[in-house]
Design a protein that fits this description.
Structural class: alpha+beta
Shape: globular
Number of helices: 8
Order of helices and strands: EHHEEEEHHHEHEHHEEEEEEE
Helix content: 25-40%
Largest sheet: 6 strands, mixed
Radius of gyration: 24 Å
Distance between the termini: 57 Å
Number of strands: 14
Low-confidence stretches: 1-6
Oligomer: single chain
Length: about 325
């Protein structure tokens, strides 16, 4: 059986990237390109929003023409850390058993890398949920409540804090809605229609416009289509789009919320490719005698919207 043995190690800067990067970059939204990712940010960076500007006929003179405007919004990172304590007794047995499969083993041959992989999966889930739901309560749009992650401001909390230029609110949770019955205020089809009807001009007809919804909301939409078409197979294909706009379902997206945006208007920033990240693996067997391993990771993360007025949203107000 494979031996479980490693020396206490401390990885800093680029040496920590193989351990920290998978924990962040494997989050569903980041891995699938559902937002724009900046992976080399040191504390904060400016995101530029350019608008206006016109073209005129050429002349021999020069005169200011149009109103080109360049505005900045700041993406500020939050310092984050992982403090995990893992019992080697249980986890090591799983790892050692996998090693007996030789080349068919689905886990790394190094126990330290296996621990990092195990923790990375859990960290990725937290990062994914915070990208969309951090400080956002989907039941009423507030910044707190049961189950609301609080690591950093999310895309939705940033949107709610804005002007709500193209926002539609409703009372109650989304429902599947029956095509044979009159439209329901909370019906998923009704809400999708309201979202598209309120799109800003910059998104109307744009092939790069995406509609974001949770997987639960997507299931409600699928149920609506299946009932409408009486053909679940056909509904499977139809559910990928609404009126020509691609539907995206990030793992961490909140329920009872619809968002329309371009990917390049939504940002996640991290310092994972800088020298300011760190990963530590501490085996307590050689110090306290406990059959435990402590894993520490330090990195930064944060989100930002470039232009709230270039998005549309449907969400609950209560």
């Amino acid at each position: 059986m494979a031996a479980v043995d490693f020396t206490n190690t401390n990885y800093e800067g680029t040496a920590a990237v193989p351990f920290v990067a998978p924990a962040i970059l494997s989050a569903d939204t980041i891995a699938n390109g559902y937002c724009t990712v900046l992976d080399n940010v040191r504390y904060k960076t400016n995101l530029r929003k350019v608008s206006g500007g016109t073209v005129e006929g050429r002349t021999c003179g020069f005169a200011g023409n149009g109103s080109l405007s360049v505005d900045d919004v700041q993406l500020v990172l939050t310092e984050l850390q992982v403090n995990e304590e893992i019992c080697n007794h249980e986890l090591a047995r799983t790892w050692a058993a996998e090693q007996m499969r030789g080349n068919y083993a689905g886990v790394p041959g190094d126990y330290e890398q296996y621990l990092a992989q195990y923790v990375a999966g859990r960290v990725a889930e937290d990062i994914e949920k915070n990208i969309w739901q951090g400080k956002y309560n989907h039941t009423d749009g507030s910044t707190s409540g049961s189950g609301v992650p609080l690591l950093f401001d999310s895309i939705m909390s940033a949107y709610v804090a804005g002007a709500g230029t193209h926002e539609t609110t409703l009372v109650g949770a989304f429902t599947a809605e029956s095509p044979a019955s009159p439209a329901v205020d909370t019906g998923i089809a009704t809400q999708l229609a309201a979202l598209v009807a309120n799109l800003p001009d910059a998104l109307v007809g744009d092939a790069n416009t995406k509609i974001y919804m949770s997987r639960k909301s997507f299931q409600l939409y699928f149920q609506f289509l299946a009932a409408d078409q009486n053909n679940p197979v056909l509904a499977t294909q139809m559910a990928k789009f609404y009126l020509g706009y691609e539907i995206i379902t990030p793992a961490g997206f909140p329920d009872d919320t619809l968002l329309a945006s371009r990917v390049d208007n939504i940002y996640f920033g991290t310092n994972v490719l800088t020298d300011h990240v760190e990963a530590r693996f501490i085996d307590l067997r050689n110090t306290t005698g406990a059959d435990l391993t402590r894993i520490l990771m330090m990195f930064d993360g944060g989100t930002q919207i470039v232009d709230e007025a270039s998005m549309a949203c449907v969400r609950r107000s209560s």
